[in-house]
Amino acid sequence: MDRLETGSVKRDRSSSFEAGNAEGGESAAAERHRKGRAAEAAVANFLRREGYSIVATNLRLGRLELDVVARLGPLIAVVEVRTRGASAWTTGFGSVDGKKRRRVRRAGERLWQRRYKHDSAVERMRFDVASVTWSSRGEAEIDYAIAAF
Asked: With CB atoms 3.0 to 4.6 Å apart as the test, which of 1, 17, 73, 142 could cross-link to 38 if both were Cys?
């Protein structure tokens, strides 16, 4: 198994998503929400295959939220998950602007202060980004950037 290394991007194509039927009563917002949750689950499964343990998904810290928090030994990885359709103009990576990075970093700092600051088994925290693109067949393609910001 290839290990994730700092500065690397890894691609995975092993998850799928069954789209809802907007005509059947599900709104576009509800379908985006389902796709977002499916993307977070796909990324969590990807990280488990890489040897990480999942600490939390959709972790609320006041008004802030972290999509996935994972652990690999003394490392805590905070992962921002972004989704895009097959016809999107930009990748999920391109959608993580300065404002989003600041919010995720602030949430990560809050998590560190509340949970890991005094945990001697944890040495550092890293901020990663996973970009999930859904194919027309509902398959997820995950591009994963280590230490993205």
From this structure: 17
CATH architecture of 19-145: 3-Layer(aba) Sandwich (3.40)
Euclidean distance between CA atoms 34 and 39, whole angstroms: 9
79-98 in b/e burial notation, b at 16+ Cβ within 10 A? Answer: bbbbbbeeeeeeebbeebee
Residue with tokens 């890894």: 10
Distance CA 60, CA 55 (A): 13
Residue-wise pLDDT for 113-134, tens only, equals 999 999 999 999 999 999 998 8
Length of the chain: 149
Query: CA-CA distance, 37 to 15, in Å (whole number)?
Result: 13
**pLDDT tens per residue, range 43-99:** 999 999 999 999 999 999 999 999 999 999 999 999 999 997 767 777 789 889 999
Amino acid identity at 45: N
The C-alpha atoms of residue 93 and residue 112 are separated, in whole angstroms, by: 24
Tokens 């977002």 -> residue: 36
